[in-house]
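Minutes, project huddle
Topic: does the predicted pose make sense with fe (ii) ion bound?
PN asked that the exact inputs be recorded in the minutes so nobody has to dig through chat later. Recorded below.
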Amino acid sequence: MAQYKVTVFTGSMAQAGTMNKLYIKLVGAEGESDHRWLANLKGGFYQGAADLFTVWCSAPLGRLLLVELDKKTLPLMPQDAWFCSKVTVETPEGETAHFPVYRWISDLEKHLFREGTAYRVFDEKHPLAIYCREMELKSRAQDYSWDVPGEGLPHAIKAESPLDLPCEVRFSFTKTTQFLFTASSALTELSLKGYANSKKLWKNIDDIGQVFTCNRTPISDYVQEHWREDEFFGYQFLNGVNPTIIRRCYQLPANFPVTDDMVRAFLHGASSLTDEIKKGNIYLVDYKQLDGVTANKINGKQQYLTAPLVLLQKTPNDKLIPVAIQLKQKPGEDNPIFFPTDSEYDWLMAKIFVRSADFSEHQLNAHLLRTHLLSEVFAVALLRNLPMVHPLYKLLIPHTRYTLQINFLARLLLISKDGVFTQFAASGGEGMFTILRRAVSSLTYSSLCLPEDIAARGLESIPNFYYRDDGLRLWDMIHRLVQGVIGHYYKSDFDVQQDSELQNWIKDIFIHGFLSRASSGVPQSLDTVKELVKIVTVAIFTGSAQHSAVNSGQFDYGGWMPNTPITLQLPPPSGKGQCNEALLFRTLPDVNTTVQGMSTMWLLSKQSTDFVRLGEYPEGHFSEDAPCRLIKEFQAELKAFSESVKARNSGLDVPYTYMDPELMENSVAI
Ligand code: FE2
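Predicted holo structure (tokens), as shared on screen:
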């Protein structure tokens, strides 16, 4: 007789246990055990428990291929869902086989789980392993279908409600409870409830300060104090919540006719704009994607959204200072170019229109499209095309945690017909779809690869650019992890070319994420190990570091409304000398729009307690030494990097924390 010692691990999340009867069958290359009841003296399988059993077989089973698990109900007992983390089996030969499961088993069907060694599709020789692989993908393709949410938009998971999503990808009980609690209580928590129905204008800045007394952050306090300053306005293009739009100016755009004469008097330490451009000291922010977008109506009132151009100078003391702002794309008499030497309110109003345009550009392009929607595409493509035993599934699945559900909720609560964004943002409604479609049609693969993006924007040497400094370090660490893991499994380009599952995965990304647009530069198939390493690095970086950079500072920089008005109620000034304090308050959002914006940014910046940080892999999908060692090295590097970020931040007036790995999630989860 051959003795197999089986340990069954139940998940540690709420409601993971079961009182149902569990059965197991061990399947090896040379035979299988009986379908065996796991008789548990404790009467059930409890949350977080590891239960040990012995399975006797008449002869050794050979190399263990899979375990079959199922459950039955006891008489008079209800069927309950069970979350099995993993099964380990000690063989008579003294080896331990690991079977990652990480699934809810809620039915009475038989479920097959492969032994943890990663196999590519062309490695499989055993007919049962091949069958198991095919069945898994068939069932996944049914569970995860593509939906087309609108013309010109990336495709998404098909689901009518969060309950349509398979249990594995839903929020945990903890996350659901906390998210719903924060969503429903944000107004109360911020002491804003009394303001939520007021359609009045703000009378003065102190009134806005009155609602900004609870749950501030050190950075939001700094913003409140410094939002009017040019230096802080410039700083935000590098290290605020949207560091993705500024670029070096090599030549002024034809529609932004700033001349040497206009700015000579106040350029810092320089005699001419032309010289400064040549020296690489002039930077441009151009919101041309917002040009002509239909602005929203809020509380029955027309709102305004402009497509500004901003010119900034890097000064001799390494500050980034705005030197010219034009609020609309088409130059003309009614579209003046504003300068820091204009009246206080003319210049402040110009900056406010820029900040408001930045809100729409940031939320829809940098945040929603370039992190949330793309991460969803990476997740659905993975789930549909790669079985659990595939090395890429093992590497990428932790980086998809909660993404499908948070995006479902974003569609439901933010951008649906009654969503907060639709109701209260200048670009809500029709404008949002115009901006998104434009952003999708100009999205490039290269811009998702941080080193290429920084080079293309000419930002390699601009000082005090912490998003770049931290981002490039993280890119490098992620790239090395991916290179190590992929390199372990794919020894040659031919290995990549013959992996049909991998080819289906990238094809899905090309078709459903980039809408089959070859000009995006995203690969349609993978020919080399290098290409595979790059796209996997993009997927992990986008869901972790990039999302954190554009997500986590939303309340810091947007909580103090005048710094980031989500809409504006009057058109931009058509001439100089028109602006004053009264006009400013008639232009800023009204009271209820302000507090809705504040509470939403609060919700979206708040961390859940079951947060999983970058590089933590609580589910052990890999069981081989090489990937486990690479993961440990990655974790050690992240820890050391986090310490260096903290040391750097301790000397800064405004710390840059959004790319500190300790504060960053593994996936788009909020
Ligand atoms: Fe987000």
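Observations noted during the meeting:
- The domain at 119-244+358-670 is CATH 1.20.245.10 (Lipoxygenase-1; domain 5).
- The pocket of fe (ii) ion is lined by residues 367, 372, 547, 551, 604, 670 (CB under 6 Å).
No decisions taken; revisit at the next huddle.
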